[in-house]
Amino acid sequence: MFGIECKTAENESLSLTGDGDTLLEIADDILTEAKKIPQKLNAVPVFYCSLQKTDSPYNGISENFPASWKNVLKIANAYESVSVKIKCDSVPALNLYDIPKKDVEILVKDGSGYKSFFTMNGNHHRIVMHGNFGNLNLTGKDNDISVTIFNLNGTNLFLDNVYATLETKAFSSEPAPTEVKLNEITFKNGSQINAKNAAVKALTSEVKLKFEEDPSLFYTAQNPFIRSYGSSVLSSVFKVEKAGYAVKSDKSKTSCFVIRDPNAEGVGDVPSFNLKIGEKTLGGNASNSAEVPYKDEDVSLNVTASYTEKYRATWLFGDEFIGQSENAYTSVKLNLKDWKSFLDSEKNTLICILQDKENGDFRVEKGYFKPVPYLENGMLPEVRVTYSGSKTLDNPSVSFESGEVLKDFVIDGNTYDLYVLTYKNSKGCIYKYMYGYNGNYSKVDNFEIKSTKGLQNLALNKDYILALASDHSVVAYKKDGTGSEKTVNVSSLNLNSSFDTITKTYLDDKDRFFVALSTADSSYSTYTPKLTYGKLKNTGGNLKVDLVKTHDLNIMTKLSKVVLKGEDETKITDLYVRDDKLYVLAKNHFDGKTSSKPEDTYAGTSNGAIIRFDIKSDELDSDSTFYSSQNNPHYGHTEQPASEEKRRSAFYGPSRFICITKDALFIADEGGHVNGIGESYVDVNRIVKIDLSSLRFEVVGSCASSFSEQFREGTDTVVISGKTVKCGKFSKL
Question: Is 84 left (phi over 0), alpha (psi -120 to 50) or beta?
Fold first, then answer.
């Protein structure tokens, strides 16, 4: 027996004590460094290690003289060979910083022999498993160690400051496994697992999770303990050893988090709170679901409780993890577009777990919401429109230059983007606003279409913005704002400029182009509304509309028979098509007439109707559905004022569809009435809801101002039953 003192590459003294069969050549007065140790030819050096003999002085080149784990790693690292084998009497715990920068095979004693446990490449931290000996213990430092583990099956995994990637892969002639099966995983110091192209499943019934040095599971609640790339991870596979906690995955089933069990009873003095989406407080039960309008946007989630930074809010949508907020002043985002497949049309459950980060006390609250049906055209009911006076949209993000006023707007039924037509000095300009949550819009700065013509009305299809000009021509612009103005060839319009006025154009999703006309008689005392329509065609970039049919629709006749007396100023104000049904808004505003016959004397008329036609083979069904007041309850031709019931069940003057949902139409209704003979006139601006299935009439709110016209008290007077009454005037602002 003899001992030799040598030095490693790190100039660290190392005692090499052997049994007389060392692989060293000794020359007098020459210091032999361990890194210069010669190797046996054509052989991978093999070292023996004892995990029980931590203070072993041996070099481990003989099974009878095993080295300690610490020493065998130093010796193996000092060898010039690219590969080494280390035979251990038990499974070692690996500090990944100490592994030699070469291929290292770890073998574990099994009975009378050794079986390969794994092979590891120290340069790239790649571990290939060959056997199952119960535990693979990996330790890093400061969470900057990443290791890839291939074909890990049935081995308990212990991770300390390690990011591990689990992967399946074929080696030599062995078929590649498709699953990683585990019994138990222990996480320490923020360790995480990535599963790459491998489905993680339990070897038996479940994978047990242990989390050391994290009693409140703070880190794992914020960060997934496992992420999957290429295969889904089922949260039901995992069970947290610590009671009162549960595993939840995100919507994609690719990340799993450990949170307080949302089905458990809360503990401690955590304050009560309500759940909110934006400004909407959610109902506390499924039958009281709050309606939440949305499209593609991120929706802010928050709670109404006033809590401090000592609490953490964890959010679930149904059974799926959304995210967390660490105090009352931060919110979590729920992108409803991404969760569209999870949404229920009637009820959706949001769960918030408010937890004390210090002691783990928590409270669970649930709220329910249902999404408002997608907006197809128009504004949200909550968005008020001001179309006179200041002539602006009641939205702080929609603004206009000095002297520039709103003329028309239209909303894209697919993207919900808002196109606004303004005019200044009789010239038209079109701007685009991007749709946002709750009807808020942001202006697209680089989108601006200017025209030398006085544009009056907008319509859209999937490619173009169509605008009606004051000279009765129709022009088109690309929706992306590129290209120049194009003239749309509209045949068979044949307008008489002296008597004919276009009141509205409309383009449906089948490119049927509708033009609403108002034709006056020679005395301008009676106006006949007409509707003509055809198909918009794009041939080689040339846009053309062949107006194939013109109908007077008998709107004037219907209104006259049902609601109107005297002279008519009836016009079509708006159009909408859905499922081959045409919805027409018409109104009649008449300022008044003096006559020697009391029955022919009127202080004014304010009423209107909605008419629904079936479009069949490019014909309008003569058996249309009609809704309006049954008489004129609003003002002027009777001595008795209309009852409140009458006023709430009939139109004053429907001016515009301002919101269209799956189930209903929302209409700006405006006009006026008198409280009695000789009394002052009352201006009315309100929102009426029409149910699409029944055409049920319901007043649901009021506008802040008028939409297109405003009723004003006139200066002309008439005598009705001996009383002098001022005539009403509708000021077109």
Answer: beta
Sequence-separated (6 or more) residues with CB below 8 Å from residue 185? 156, 157, 158, 159, 193, 207, 208, 209, 210, 225
What is the overall mean pLDDT for the chain? 75
User: What is the per-residue pLDDT for 617?
Assistant: 61
DSSP code string of 261-318: -TTSPPBS-PPP--EEETTEEPBSSGGGPEEE--SSSEEEEEE-S---TTEEEEEEET
Q: What is the mean pLDDT of residues 26-32?
A: 43
Distances, alpha carbon 126 to alpha carbons 101, 102, 157, in Å: 11, 11, 15
Which tens digits make up the pLDDT trace of 562-578?
Answer: 344 445 677 888 898 88
Is the CB of residue 652 less than 8 Å from the CB of residue 607?
A: yes
* Chain centroid, CA 640 distance in Å: 54
Residues listed for the chain: 733
Alpha-carbon distances of 455 from 98, 388, 406, 417, rounded to whole Å: 77, 18, 11, 20
β-pair type (67-68, 46-50): parallel
Cα dist from 507 to 93, 239, 447, 493, whole Å: 73, 58, 22, 16
**Which one-letter amino acid corresponds to residue 499?**
F
Q: What is the dihedral of CA 17, 19, 20, 21, to 10 degrees?
A: -100
**In this predicted structure, what is the pLDDT of residue 561?**
39
Element (H, E) at 557: helix 555-562
Contact in structure between 333 and 301 (CB atoms under 8 Å)? yes
- 253: phi then psi, degrees, rounded to nearest 5: 60, 30
Pairing of strands 238-240, 207-212: parallel
Distance CA 466, CA 495 (A): 19
Ramachandran category for residue 217: left, alpha or beta (phi over 0 → left; psi -120 to 50 → alpha): left
- Residues 6+ away with beta carbon under 8 Å from 713: 680, 681, 726, 728, 729
Alpha carbon distance 463, 477 (integer Å): 9
**If DSSP states are collapsed to H, E and C, what string results for 40-74?**
CCCCCCEEEEECCCCCCCECCCECCECEEHHHHHH
Task: Name the nearest CA neighbour of 502 among 490, 510, 487.
Answer: 490
Q: What is the DSSP letter of 33?
A: B
Residues of the chain with CATH 2.60.40.10: 275-371
Written as six digits, the tokens of 415 are: 């993207």
Q: Is 568 exposed, middle or buried (0-12, 13-18, 19+ CB in 10 A)?
A: buried
CA 376-380-386 angle, 5° bins: 120
**Cα(485)–Cα(241) distance, integer angstroms:** 69
Do 185 and 210 touch, CB atoms closer than 8 A?
yes
Structure tokens of 191?
A: 């360790």
Do the Cβ atoms of 464 and 477 come closer than 8 Å? yes
pLDDT score at 221: 63
Three-class secondary structure of residue 181 per DSSP: strand
CATH number among 3.40.630.10, 3.40.47.10, 2.60.40.10, 3.40.50.1370, domain 275-371: 2.60.40.10
Residue 235 CB: number of other CB atoms within 10 A?
Answer: 21
Write the CB contacts of 368 (distance below 8 Å, at least 6 apart in sequence): 282, 283, 284, 285, 286, 288, 289, 290, 347, 348, 349, 350
